[in-house]
Structures are given as C-alpha cells and as structure tokens.
Amino acid sequence: MINSIVEASKIFDSTIRIQILASLSTSSLTYNQLKKVCRCADGAMTNHTSKLEQAGYITVKKEFVNRRPQTTYSITELGRQELIDFVDILNKEIGEK
After folding, report:
1. How far is CA 22 from its chain centroid?
2. 12, burial (CB in 10 Å: exposed 0-12, middle 13-18, buried 19+)
3. What are phi and psi of 30, to 5 degrees?
4. Dist. CA 97–CA 77, nearest whole Å
5. pLDDT (tens digit, 9 = 90+) per residue, 56-69?
6. What DSSP designation does 13 have?
7. Rounded CA gap, 35 and 7, in Å?
8. How does pLDDT run across 27-54, given as a tens digit for each residue?
C-alpha cells in the first residue's frame, strides 16, 4: 500500500506509466492500442511497460493472431490497487492544500 507521494514516485513518476495503468484499468489493450492512447514512441512504450511488468503491475501476453504477432497488456490486482491508492493520495494532497 502506498502511504505517501514520496513512496509512489518510484512507479508513478511518469505520466506515461500512469496513463498505461489508467487505460488498462478499464480493459486489456494490445500494444498498438496502448501506444495510440499514450502517444509515445516504441522505445518509450517498451521501457515503461517493462518497468510496470517487473513491478508486478501489469501482465504481458504474446500470441499470434492471423499469423501476426500480437502483444496484449492487462493490469494485475496489485497494479489496480496501487493505482487506486495513488489516486486516493493525490486526492488527499489536493484536498489539504
């Protein structure tokens, strides 16, 4: 559980990673769908999704669809809970100012 903005900064220090988690909180998305939503380059997508996967916040599924490779991302329960905690802390911080 995230208790402060300082604790959250390691994962949530990037708006792209926040966008990725927020987008995946509604449904799983393919690489191309997620890239379009986040409006970022291939290298940035790979970097951010790798960090989120290593942290256990998302899962990655690779398969072939119509003989073409397709990567699909999903948020984990840990990722969902950490996103909720992060939003709660932001709301508290904004409310206290």
Report:
1. 6
2. buried
3. -80, 170
4. 31
5. 999 999 999 899 99
6. T
7. 27
8. 999 999 999 999 999 999 999 999 999 9
Question: What length is written for the chain?
Answer: 97
Question: Are 71 and 60 a contacting pair, CB within 8 Å?
Answer: yes
Could you tell me what percentage of the chain is helix, strand and coil, using 3-state DSSP and rounding each to the nearest 5?
Answer: 60, 20, 20
Structure tokens that stand for 32 in this block: 């191309």
Cα–chain-centroid distance for residue 28? 11
d(CA 29, CA 35): 9
At 26, list the tokens: 């509604």
pLDDT per residue as tens digits for the range 4-32 = 666 666 788 899 999 999 999 999 999 99
Q: Say if CB 30 and CB 70 are below 8 A apart.
A: yes
